[in-house]
Write a structure and sequence with these properties.
- Helix 2 packs across helix 6.
- The chain has one domain: VSR Endonuclease (Endonuclease, Chain A, 3-Layer(aba) Sandwich), CATH 3.40.960.
- It is elongated, with a radius of gyration of 17 Å.
- The protein is an alpha+beta fold.
């Protein structure tokens, strides 16, 4: 069954790029731990959560849009996962471009002295405390390093 492209376009346009459920869940978990952060600062890639003093940028990456769904579903590759879908080439190009952009943004921020953490939405849904602990450990270590360097 194929869907009209106009309908698909409307559905895709309605998906939020900010303040998604996984992002809000993670932010609440970090706030409960006493971590304070900034949101959506105009940095390369527009990180979802930013710890400015520690110089840590966090991205909450959606599994489908950033190329993780095929792994979760046990497919051999992104191409194999998309092969049965309508408009497979369009999605392959789109998702591959997103993945390349993610790598470029991470490299750019790291070259500017930032630590980048990318959290999959599925990891947040599965165990938000584990993801929050990873971020907390990184932020506290980076903040301590910045404090001792000054």
């Amino acid at each position: 069954m194929t869907r009209d492209q106009e309908v698909t376009s409307r559905i895709m346009a309605s998906i939020p790029s900010r303040n998604t459920k996984p992002e809000l869940t993670l932010r609440r978990a970090l706030h409960r731990r006493g971590l304070r952060y900034r949101l959506h600062l105009p940095f390369p890639g527009r990180p979802d959560i930013v710890f400015t003093r520690a110089r840590v940028a966090v991205f909450v990456d959606g599994d489908y849009w950033h190329g993780n769904t095929w792994r979760l579903r046990g497919a051999e590759s992104l191409d194999a996962y998309l092969s049965a879908s309508a408009n497979a080439e369009f999605w392959r190009v789109k998702i591959t471009a997103n993945m390349r952009r993610d790598h470029a943004v991470t490299a750019e921020l790291e070259s500017l002295g930032w630590t980048v953490i990318r959290a999959w939405e599925s990891d947040i849904r599965h165990d938000v405390d584990r993801v929050a602990t990873r971020i907390q450990t990184t932020v506290r270590a980076a903040a301590l390093q910045a404090w001792t360097a000054s």
